Amino acid sequence: MSGYAPDGTSGNDTEKDARRIVHVDMDAFYAQIEQRDFPDRYAGKPIAVGGDPPRGVVQTASYEARPYGVHSAQPAVEADRKCPDLIFVSPRMDVYQEESKRIRKILRRYTDLVEPLSLDEAYLDVTEPKTGRPSGTLIARRLRAEIYEETGFTASAGVGPGKFVAKVASDLDKPDGLTVVRPDEQMEFIAQLPIEKFHGIGPVTAAKMQELGIQTGADLQETPERTLIHHFGKRGRHFKTLAVGTDDRPVQPDRDRKSVGAERTFPEDIARAETMLERLSPIAERVAQRLRQANRKGRTVTLKLKSHDHQVSTRQTTVDRPLRAEDALMTITERLLRRPHPPDEPVRLLGISVSSLTEEERAGGQLEFDFRP
């Protein structure tokens, strides 16, 4: 990227008062672990960690598989069709969790302000590091080097004055890359981003923005906040905040998750309940994966439905025992979809979330279905 520092060589921290936020993102983390642990089987080969076809979903694809169009959250049957030599590997979540703990210990050598987002990525605020100069660039370099030396895994990192910029930057030079955005560069950096890169802008919101002539970060920067609020409600203010570089959200090391969920917007309306259930299955698998990553189970399941005219409704129930497994989630989701009856209107978006969360260690026992009115 012209004007920025994809290898960190010119990304010196010049503004003394600016925050220094690092976003570390492990490269195809699950796949890297499998290739390291079983080199004879998987090293240098296209692999997908996740469920097998026909009903499975890809959790992580190795970089050898990605040129074929294989990516995470993709139905396994589609991935198999795109890459005939693809090797499907069953996930070993206990191993991934242990490796994640090792990496977090490395991150905490430099700061206690570490906010994990999942097993394979985290934010760090290194404005006042435990050791060394307060340079986001130098610390990101050291972190990546130490992670590789001690685990054999590569990581990509982004450095910026806020969480949004740092996260976007970490994805620009993958794998094994570093992109630094200095405070005096961030407005230009944000300006050239397509609107799909902004948090909270999915396909439906992007299409609506494009109708308004908003294609890039520069367009967002020029659009009055009141216009964005008029069309997008409170989210409009959030989009404007990101666009003008005033993202001052703190890194929260003890972030308490209130819910774990996933949703998907479809290009066409779905009218039949059977089709909705087919589309909900990979969503449930994704939620189960995120619950495992967060080491959580939950008692309250919520089904989210958005109709073709953007009307949102939810159906919710609470069970006696915490749950996490995909099959349990789907059993409850199907009952929610059909009770008291399937949606009257076609839907454009489906989502599942789990709340009333508990730590894994306190969430034992068998699942009992006790639907409450």
UniProtKB/TrEMBL annotation:
Its cofactor is Mg(2+). Its EC number is 2.7.7.7. Its main location: cytoplasm. One of its GO terms (biological process) is error-prone translesion synthesis. Mg(2+) binds at D25, D120. The keyword DNA-binding applies. Binds 2 magnesium ions per subunit. The record marks Y30 as: Substrate discrimination. Keywords: Cytoplasm, DNA damage, DNA repair, DNA replication, DNA-binding, DNA-directed DNA polymerase, Magnesium, Metal-binding, Mutator protein, Nucleotidyltransferase, Transferase. InterPro entries: DNA/RNA_pol_sf, DNA_pol_Y-fam_lit_finger_sf, DNA_pol_Y-fam_little_finger, DNA_polymerase-Y, DNApol_IV, PolY_HhH_motif, Rev_trsase/Diguanyl_cyclase, UmuC. GO terms for cellular component: cytosol. It comes from the Bacteria. Residues 21-202 form the UmuC domain. PROSITE patterns: UMUC. It is found in: Cytoplasm. It catalyses: DNA(n) + a 2'-deoxyribonucleoside 5'-triphosphate = DNA(n+1) + diphosphate. The keyword Lipoprotein does not apply. PANTHER family: DNA POLYMERASE KAPPA, DNA REPAIR POLYMERASE UMUC / TRANSFERASE FAMILY MEMBER. Belongs to the DNA polymerase type-Y family. Poorly processive, error-prone DNA polymerase involved in untargeted mutagenesis. Copies undamaged DNA at stalled replication forks, which arise in vivo from mismatched or misaligned primer ends. These misaligned primers can be extended by PolIV. Exhibits no 3'-5' exonuclease (proofreading) activity. May be involved in translesional synthesis, in conjunction with the beta clamp from PolIII. This is DNA polymerase IV. It comes from Salinibacter ruber.
